[in-house]
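Throughout our pipeline, every protein is held as a single compact record rather than as scattered files. The remainder of this section carries one protein's record, kept here as part of the documentation.

===
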Amino acid sequence: MTDMFKCYLKALVPFRIRRLLFKTMIVSNSYREEIELAESVLLMRNEGTALDSEYWAAMLRKYAHILDKGLQRCDCEAGHSNGFYSLAREAMNHIAGTDLVNEPSVLWARNKVLEYEAFQVSKCVDDKPIPFVPTNCTYEQLHDAMVTRRSVRIFTNHAVPRSEIEKIVSVVNWAPASCNRQTVRVYIADNPELVSICLGVNNGATCTSDNIPCFISFCADVRPYDMPHEMTLPVLDTALGIQNCCLAAHALGIGMTLLNWTHHTEEQAKLLRKTLGIPSYFRIVANAVLGYPAQGAPLPVRKSDNLTYTFV
């Protein structure tokens, strides 16, 4: 063994140990966060604490969705789903404030409850099939948007107008959501000082240009989920909405690139929450940067179709 190789090992081992300790700390922190979040949700729901009108609106959407599925059945019969009906009525009684009482999704849910009540009396539903609404977007157009979207990391100095940002994030709730809960909340920073702070606590914000016009944090209100068996659903619901936003941004000529948040520390999470005002019962699922591309990004070749799907 040469002296040079011995020196190399001496330098390498401490580095590998440091990396192992760092990864262990990150994994431990992630699991602790998940467990603490699940426990806090159970505690809040059992004690009724921190269950505001926004929570009850999500639960109303959930129960109304279940009633709606029953009403759509061909063999729909009165008397079914009474338990969910009672839960929906309870949720309705807890919603206060003009903004939420008259919010479109809440009004839809209330109407579904009324429709369920009417069915218990009349025992009949409109037997006319609901027409299927096709899209004006062709497969080729949608496919083009999907395959030309890139994770752009170099942006121009042009600020993204809030009207355009609103267009992008407004499509987040049009993705499928478990039981129609619609728990996603998007926190947006377009102030350069705040953007800088947010980027500083996000380990995934690497290889980007100095000028980042906008920082976005995609979060999910975890209170309406039944823990622990629904622990993964907030991530799934949010991720589906994020994909909508990515494609909407691309359609507007704006680049939206997701940032890895899985390597964050407890201190970084606290600072990001403080900076953006994210409550403790919201799970930070993913973050992103937004801006007008100064250049493109190379094509990352996707794996072959025969490795992607299997007919059985």
